[in-house]
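ugh ok so i messed up the first submission bc i forgot one of the chains. this is the corrected input, ALL of the components this time, i swear. 578 residues overall. if the numbers dont match what u have on ur side tell me asap before i send this to the collaborators (the ones from the other lab, u know who)
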Amino acid sequence: MTTYTARANRRNNWYGYLFISPMMLGFLCFLAGPIIYAFALSFTDYSLLHPASFVGLDNYVQLVGKDPLFWKTVGNTLYFSAGLIPLNLILALSLALLLNQKLPGTGLFRTAIFTPVVTSIVVWAIVWKYVFATDAGLLNQILGYFGMQGPAWLYDTALVMPVVIVVSVLKKVGMNMVIFLAALQDVPKMYYEAATIDGASKWRQFQSITLPMIAPSIFLTLIITLIGSLKVFSQIIVMTEGGPGTSTYVLVYYIYQLAYKVFDIGYASAVAFVLFFLVLVLTLVQWKFRKRWVHHEQ
Amino acid sequence: MSNKLQKNASSAVRFMLLAIVAAIILTPFYWMITTSLKNETKVFQFPMQLLPSPIEWENYAKVFTEQPQFLLHYWNSLYIAVLVTVGTCAVAALAGYAFAKIPFKLRNVWFLVLLSGMMIPSEVTTIPSFLWFSKLSLVDTHFPLIIPPMLGAGGIFGVFLLRQFFITIPNDLDEAAEIDGCSRWQILLKIMIPLATPVFATLSIFTFLNSWEDFLDPLIFISSSEKFTLPIAMKLFTDTAGTAWHLLMAASVMATLPLLLVFFVAQKKFIDGIATTGLK
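and heres the new structure output, hopefully the right one now
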């Protein structure tokens, strides 16, 4: 019996490690290895012109103390996140609440609002850039019909970020809407029936039943949307290229500029590590909250 | 009676709100399609044409004559996305099954280690990867667009989804198969994978979309125009003379259409899949 168990264990170990080996190898070569290397690079002065030399914390000191563009970049990224998240979540939740009641055309609306999620972000950004174009753009032409002179949306330092935020919200709001819709449909109907008998108003029911019941979904989408917003890049490079001036410089765009345009690899790695640190903290918060993701055993 | 009226009125208001949001979201598609069919001289006409007249179907043919490599770029995007999707499903199925069903040593430790990779943004690892890939002469090849997404964070997401699914399958099922003399491979191929079809569908659409719309990686790793993928090929429609909007929009329609068609055909299953595969 023991030999049988020993053999079974050996076989289990062999198949277990065999089956996870491609992913573990990938983890080593494409995630763990590069992140350690990036961390090391962030302590070097390294460009294409000269080999890497160790400079200690110089890059980080420079970043924090002597680089106004870095702080501008952090500020822009936070501005983007702060604008995107409430808009995205409130719109997604409102749409989910509207769709959760059986109205004619519900399926059609759901499909329409989800469509941008399966549209390439580059195409999405290109078309919106054209919609917001100053002279030939659809929006300013429509404004023109009403005798209004539309602004230069993408060339105005005050307007450009809100425009990018709206375009980004419309791209992804369908995803969060579907997640909320699924959560709403899981709330037991009897809670509402009981509340109605007790005379609770619709708003009161929303506050006391709906919100607490779907809170885990709200938290999850909040964190996922927040992490995604810190990594915004494609719509920025397509629509604004960081401009006008530096008014839409965001973290990934700055990393891209530093690493592949200026070839300041050490410094770019330091900025990249700031991004990694932010994402790390947020992910840990999320994991702590969703323990069952990891400890979900039979 | 007034109660019913009130109810109808509130339904109408809700319907209107949904219609407005849907209209705003569909506007770019309307603008993209109508512009793609406009005569070059009508693109900037004021007041604008709401519907193209005459309808220039030739714009679509012109995309291929003005950009002779467009078909090649299309093919590059397509084969890369298909490979990444198939590969991700395969490696994720193997690892997801092992983590759910094979009691090997340190299983949960390895699972946690792998999951930790999900918090490493690819935006951060591109710099070291670029240095390594250039040493291995893999820059300006499609390798960095195929293998790292498959075995990196995208693959881990797949492992996670499939593990969560396989765990819900009763152990009796694979134990019975083992007693009947099925090997681990046979159990995986003949029992587990067919059961997980809905999970693979969701994972496939996400993986395909991520690869299809990936912009940063091709921008960094690809420099020869014959190796471009569609997202970076779009810039070729802009030159010093300006942007050929009618052609760019025709190219955009062609770049968007396959995914939209797949989505429209399978949309109910797909949206339900998102709702049930642990994403909520």
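quick check: Chain B touches chain A through 100 residues (CB under 8 Å). that seems consistent at least. Residues 67-276 of chain B form a domain with the MetI-like fold fold (CATH 1.10.3720.10).
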